[in-house]
Write a structure and sequence with these properties.
By secondary structure, the protein is mostly helical. It has two domains: 58 residues, Up-down Bundle (AhpD-like), CATH 1.20.1290.10; 69 residues, AhpD-like (Up-down Bundle), CATH 1.20.1290. It is built from six helices and no strands. The chain is elongated, with a radius of gyration of 18 Å. Pfam families: CMD (PF02627). One of its GO terms (molecular function) is peroxiredoxin activity. Keywords: Oxidoreductase, Peroxidase.
């Protein structure tokens, strides 16, 4: 259970209501995810965070599926179950298979282990700048 209440869509007014409407429209969802409902206690923060989502996850040099894969990898590494499930769901909606998701997590597994080993041993970088 969340440590703060969710600002329901029925209770949203002003800026919060506007942002909620944009979230539903942009995501094509009939509801606003709880991530944003907890942010709504600070409407300016909600608006700024939503703008960041639209800017970063929207059209750019990387395609949306790649961005969602990065989001899953970072979320798994950081231990955010909410985000892993949300972005895995987005990947599923884009047609990702079980095999692709397992391969994605295999990359996370490989590099998480390498990162910890190299960090622990303080290995000097000889491959990049």
């Amino acid at each position: 259970m969340a440590t703060v209440s969710y600002v329901s869509e029925d209770d949203a007014t002003g800026l919060v209501r506007e942002v909620y409407e944009d979230i539903r429209k942009t995501f094509g969802m009939p509801f606003v995810p709880n991530l944003f409902k907890v942010m709504a206690h600070n409407p300016a923060y909600l608006q700024a965070s939503w703008q960041r989502v639209k800017t970063i996850m929207g059209p750019g040099l990387l395609d949306r599926k790649t961005k969602e894969m990065i989001a899953v990898a970072v979320s798994a590494t950081n231990g955010c179950d909410y985000c892993v499930r949300a972005h895995t769901g987005a990947l599923r909606a884009m047609g990702s298979t079980d095999g692709e998701l397992v391969e994605l997590m295999a990359v996370v597994d490989l590099f998480s282990g390498f990162n910890k080993m190299l960090e622990g041993l303080q290995v000097d970088n000889d491959l990049g700048r």
